[in-house]
Design brief:
single chain, alpha/beta, Nucleotidyltransferase, domain 5, six-stranded mixed sheet
Length: about 220
């Protein structure tokens, strides 16, 4: 069952969902470098289904004085100082990210963007730290609201690990591509769309209009 009349703004109370993943040089958002970031914006298509729309992706040069944990870069396989990465300074990356998201948010007639991520607290903390570090005021992102696909996947699929959740939803996931911000963001976006669309197909959205009895009760 599709409901073609639902807009993105109507679906999330004016919030514009933006799927984000960061690859970092540690777990401390205040001190550790962001090395890569990707963002996928979403839309509702002509069939009333949510799908990925635009992609933003950049390799990020460590900010001055950033901490780099050896274990972190061994895990994600990123050499922070490799010239072939084509890394851009952090301030420029986040200014461009905000510009990209603001444009898509405006086109969707939404008022604020909300970060969608797998274990969203982690990615949101790094995004917020970078925005504060460079005193970027024109940010489209809500400072603390987020949509966590880990929680949603636990509810919808009984899985919390990204690859396991994708497998349960029959979304192809190549483990060899994991821990790339671009690949993980694209897969998280697919998973989020699958869960939203699945909930709609099962009749969970839109909510039924209140009956006259319910309206009368509310007014008493």
């Amino acid at each position: 069952m599709s409901h073609i009349g639902t807009s993105l703004a109507e679906r999330f109370r004016g919030y514009f969902p933006v799927v984000i993943d960061v690859e970092t040089a540690g777990f401390n958002a205040q001190t550790d470098a962001i090395l890569e970031i990707a963002a996928v914006t979403l839309r509702i298509n002509a069939d009333g289904l949510m799908e990925p729309q635009t992609i933003f992706h950049e390799h990020v040069a460590p900010f001055e004085g950033a901490n780099i944990e050896k274990a972190a870069i061994e895990f994600n396989g990123i050499d922070p100082f490799c010239a072939l990465r084509g890394a851009i300074d952090e301030a420029s990356v986040f200014k461009e990210l905000c510009k990209h998201v603001r444009k898509a948010q405006k086109e969707a007639d939404c008022q604020r963007s909300v970060i969608v991520a797998h274990n969203a607290t982690f990615d949101q903390s790094f995004v917020n730290a970078a925005l504060a570090r460079h005193n970027i005021k024109r940010t489209p992102f809500h400072p603390f609201v987020s949509f966590d696909t880990t929680t949603l996947a636990a509810l919808c699929l009984g899985q919390t690990v990204l690859v396991k959740a994708c497998e349960a939803a029959q979304i192809e996931f190549k483990q060899s591509e994991a821990h790339s911000a671009l690949y993980d963001t694209q897969k998280t976006a697919e998973l989020f769309c699958w869960m939203v669309n699945r909930y709609q197909a099962l009749g969970g959205w839109p909510l039924p209009a209140p009956s006259n009895d319910e309206i009368d009760t509310d007014q008493k």
